[in-house]
Write a structure and sequence with these properties.
alpha+beta; Arc Repressor Mutant, subunit A; SH3 type barrels; six-stranded antiparallel sheet; four-stranded antiparallel sheet; 13 strands
Amino acid sequence: MEALLMAEEKTKQDKKGRLLALRDYLYKYTDEQHPVSTQELIDEMTRQGYPGNRKTIKDDIDVLNKFGMDIITNVSRGNSFYMASREFEIPELKLLVDAVSSSRFISAARSEQLIGKLTAMASEYEKEQITPRIFTGDRIKANNPHLYYVVDMLIQAIQNKKKVRFQYGEFDADKHKVLRNDGEIYINSPYGCLWNDDFYYLVGYSEKREKVVTFRVDRIVDLEIMDDDIIPEPADFDMSDYAKIVIEMFDGEPQEVELLCDNELMKSVIDKFGENIKTERVSDEQFKAVVNVSTSKTFYAWCFRFAEQMKIVGPENVKNTYIEMARSVIG
């Protein structure tokens, strides 16, 4: 009796193993252009230690399909089989691989790991369509292997509504990493993280500065989650609006600014501020744009990029600051 029970248990285990082996093989080695025959599947399962026949193959495929797999049986080709769909389509994987490959936030080593995981979601043949698009060696990449864990801790703190404390790094004139303000401890009530220009930014409330501020996540050092609950978001705070106003993620005074631009700059203005900004053609050569921005040095630097093709019309205080910055550059 005991021997019979053991034999039945082994049969169950063999069937489970055969199903998993069959699923993995179809996932890795088949697609619409590369189906496999029943005999090829029998031979492969036998090679892996799961001998069977045409009936077991058919029954196992029926079970896999019943539980969500998309395995197509091509009767016209003598019952050949292939995995018809996966979690991601090839165009989607290409987009994800390119995003990971080009991201400065993700280190080169971590990029290769992520790309490996993404390409594993395609068949061995489809990988060839993705791999040639991977170029990471000549791109500037982050050199901080702990970024993943910093982001993970920040997400935990945001979800649990707990304050965080940390130090903030920067570089001195000799390109040495140093702590800002002699190692000052920053305490922040985190509200969310924003992605902008290939960098992650923490957005949260600073009690010291009594306002919502941003920090580059890759410059955060010795992050800790505190036991204290966060200070609730100000009543007038909206993360989407904040992201639109604080361009390039540098703090400044949010203001409505009027720009006078050459017509050819319309695409650059829309790229920066979106299609919903207020614009008005003023001549055959120029248009006006009214934008809500954080008037920081970064905003002024963005305007400088276009030299005489873009002018700040108002308000007067912003215009004067821009003029003074131009004079200081000239010396």
